[in-house]
Amino acid sequence: MKKIFLTLLVAFTWSLETIASEITATVVFENLTSQELVKGEFEVVELNQKTEIFTLESFEIKLPESGKYHFRFESDDFTAYTFYPTRINKRNNVITVRLVEKSGFRTNGIFSFPINLEIELSDEQIEQKIAEGSLNFIMHGLDSSIPENYLNFKEKYGVGLIKENCVIDPLSFKRASENNQLIVNYLTNKYGEEWLADLNEKPFGVIL
Q1: What does the alpha-carbon distance between residue 208 and residue 188 come to, in Å, rounded to a whole number?
Q2: Residues linked to residue 28 through DSSP beta bridges, in sequence order
Q3: pLDDT tens sequence for the chain (208 residues)
Q4: Looking at domain 21-115, which of 3.40.1000, 3.30.70, 2.40.128, 2.60.40 is its CATH number?
Q5: Cα(198)–Cα(153) distance, integer angstroms
Q6: Predicted model pTM
């Protein structure tokens, strides 16, 4: 009887530890097209875990522990860019899937980018760039015009906006996403999330 009790106690303790180490991650979609999703497949590569998706509503997934994972989203309807923190933990746990129109030069229309959320520049270096007027969000668009709310934003926070070619290749996507995330981390650490109210649209490739 005592052995059975000890076995049950060990099993119960192990279950609690397993639950405590689990990470809940949220998958969100950004559909930059006018079409609707028919069907897609979301994959956690390391776990060989595939989930069929029929709606672009956000959903949650369970991961066994914090760590490095790779995620992919595939659909015949879109070119999919999936980006996420290099290391998933309880604080950095949002996976963003950005859907754009398919283009002829794409190979398989699937791009997956772990985004480094570690700030490589110190606050002093970032503030120096602000003083020089050289700290900018990066956006891709059809024209070079800067929205008025970004002009007002630069006056208030010292962070501007530059526009690049509307064709988003994988390397440009990764560079813009990491640049914008670095700025977001700095602004959030300094102002909380109040600064977001001064922008009508979220900066490109940002995980909040």
Answers
A1: 9
A2: 96
A3: 555 555 555 444 444 444 468 999 999 998 988 899 999 999 999 999 999 999 999 999 999 999 999 999 999 989 888 888 888 999 889 898 988 887 654 445 677 767 665 556 788 888 998 998 889 998 876 666 788 888 889 999 999 988 776 555 666 777 788 888 889 889 999 999 889 888 877 777 676 6
A4: 2.60.40
A5: 7
A6: 0.57
